[in-house]
Amino acid sequence: MFELPSLSYGYDSLRGFVGEELMKFHHDKHHQTYVDKLNAVVDANPELKGRLVEDLLVNINGLPISAQVGIRNHGGGHYNHSLFWQCLSPKGGGQPTGELLNLITNKYGSFQGFVDEFTTKSLGVFGSGWVWLQPNGEIITTANQDTPIAQGLDAPLLCLDVWEHAYYLDYKNKRDDYVRAWWSVVDWENAAKRYQTFLDK
Ligand code: MN3
To answer: What residues have a C-beta under 5 A from ligand 1, the ion?
Structure first.
């Protein structure tokens, strides 16, 4: 059975970004619901038992038709949020270094150029969705709980949740303030590890 991953930091430790109540709702309620519904899909399709969520998403077109929408929405919700928590850290912020900084500056001219482009894409998502930094340096967006790996793309380095449930409690309709605050908690060390995994494969 899939389980809600615990956070490596406190609910109240990202206050420059979002407060304790929002973090608790987002992790304990929203993410838990994706886990519960994902488990219900697997219960109804026992041949899927024991497979990793990444494996289910990468091979989604080969799954039973009856499972595909549930895996896309709830498997995606579980995968996306699991990665999102790892993109945040109370010690985050600043800039990446090394190969990851090179990737970004080669593509966007400067770190600030990247921030500006990522922010523009975040504000451009209509309705609910996600923004991603891919290992080729591209910034892409997905709708709902769609995820790059289910679209045949590489595993992302970084993601930002731009569903209203991710910010409404603290920011109301001001997605731009939420995105601006996010940069102060981005865990670049974890993103660099994911980039190294990509370069090593
Ligand atoms: Mn969310």
So the answer is: 161, 163, 166
Tens digits of residue pLDDT in 87-137? 999 999 999 999 999 999 999 999 999 999 999 999 999 999 999 999 999
* CA 133 / ligand 1 centre spacing (Å): 17
List the structure tokens of 160.
């930002």
Q: For the chain, how many residues are written?
A: 201
> What 8-state DSSP symbol labels residue 166?
G
Is 0.85 topped by the overall pTM?
Answer: yes
With CA atoms as reference, report the closest residue to 81 among 141, 35, 120: 35
For residue 174, name the pLDDT band (cuts at 50, 70, 90): very high
Cα of 104 from ligand 1 centre, angstroms: 26
Between the alpha carbon of residue 125 and those of residues 128, 130, 133, 176, the distances in Å are 7, 8, 15, 12
Cα 123 to ligand 1 centre (Å): 16
Q: Decide if domain 98-199 falls under CATH 1.10.8.640.
A: no
Q: Tell me, letter by letter, the H, E, C secondary structure of 116-140.
A: HHHHHHHHHCCCCEEEEECCCCCEE
Domain residue spans in the chain? 20-86, 98-199
Measured CA angle at 106 (ends 100, 107), to 5 deg: 95
CATH topology of domain 20-86: Helix Hairpins (1.10.287)
